[in-house]
Amino acid sequence: MSDVPFLKMNGLGNQIIVADLRGTNARVTPEAAIAINARAETRFDQIMAIHDPRTPGTINYVEIINSDGSRAQACGNGMRCVVQALTAELGRQRFTFETLAGILFGEETEDGQITVDMGSPKFAWYEIPLSEEFADTRYVELQVGPIDAPVLHSPSVASMGNPHATFWVKDDVWSFALDRFGPLLENHPLFPERANISIAEVVRPDHIVLRTWERGAGLTQACGTAACAALVNGARTRRTARKATVTVPGGDLIVEWLDNDHVTLTGPAEFEWRGNLNPTTGAWTRSEAA
Ligand SMILES: N[C@H](CCC[C@H](N)C(=O)O)C(=O)O
């Protein structure tokens, strides 16, 4: 397979590689993802692989690959990077994409911010999915730490196309060892497809502070779908309004749960440098200085 162009980008510090597989039948293999992530300059959280469209009315099919080689259904920060890359290339601002999670829309506005419509959240236990039935997923039984004094417990769970658990805390989110608890919770038997794990402090109804341990990627500077999950979980547990600023380690995202049930995510995207990569092996070269 010959090399394809890629862009190294980030969405609030969420490390993203946008790979251009348009016009090819190739896919980024798990082995390639692992090899790319093993090199310091291309350590990433997600690869967004842009493919030819599969469905009329969409511009591209976007496949999302985590740094452990697994596939993700959705990635909010990565979609903003894709929108920015295509806006720069094509000179248009609005796009309709297809991902494993379905059809979604993205738009770059005049101020350079990018809004992605991430679709509707899902709350039924089998949609997330959970391995046991919970009639009400606003709080599910799950805890870490001593049984009589759990450090984290009773998360709200939701699917934003991908599985999320939001643990509510009163203390500073930085006082929790998410690097220790994250892997245990991500792989907990309650989550048959694993899950993205977040801790959230509601500072005000319109302001959430959030840290996320991402499924297949670990601690990240930002996780867009986790910000969306925190907002919808906050609104349905009456902690937050339907629109809030979500402060993640990399900066601020704006999330809104619209009356039509769709959730929009707004924030920046940043281009860093470009290169060419082999989607089968992950070997790459840089084509231009930053
Ligand atoms: N960084 C992404 C989330 C990737 C989700 C992925 N870790 C998974 O669901 O496996 C975001 O901005 O939404």
TrEMBL record:
GO biological process terms on file: lysine biosynthetic process via diaminopimelate
Pathway(s) served: Amino-acid biosynthesis; L-lysine biosynthesis via DAP pathway; DL-2,6-diaminopimelate from LL-2,6-diaminopimelate: step 1/1
Keyword presence, Isomerase: yes
Reactions performed catalytically: (2S,6S)-2,6-diaminopimelate = meso-2,6-diaminopimelate
Location in or out of the cell: Cytoplasm
Organism in which the protein naturally occurs: Devosia subaequoris
Residues of the site described as Could be important to modulate the pK values of the two catalytic cysteine residues: 164, 214
SUPFAM superfamilies assigned: Diaminopimelate epimerase-like (SSF54506)
Positions contributing to substrate binding: 14, 46, 66, 76-77, 162, 196, 214-215, 224-225
Entry's EC annotation: 5.1.1.7
Protein family according to the UniProt entry: Belongs to the diaminopimelate epimerase family.
Alphabetical UniProt keywords: Amino-acid biosynthesis, Cytoplasm, Isomerase, Lysine biosynthesis
Pfam family, one: DAP_epimerase
PROSITE patterns assigned to the protein according to its UniProt record, in alphabetical order: DAP_EPIMERASE (PS01326)
UniProt subunit comment: Homodimer.
Active site: 75, 223
Function: Catalyzes the stereoinversion of LL-2,6-diaminopimelate (L,L-DAP) to meso-diaminopimelate (meso-DAP), a precursor of L-lysine and an essential component of the bacterial peptidoglycan.
Name of the protein in its database record: Diaminopimelate epimerase
NCBIfam families for the chain: DapF
GO CC annotations, alphabetized: cytosol
Gene Ontology terms, MF aspect: diaminopimelate epimerase activity
PANTHER family, alphabetized: DIAMINOPIMELATE EPIMERASE, DIAMINOPIMELATE EPIMERASE, CHLOROPLASTIC
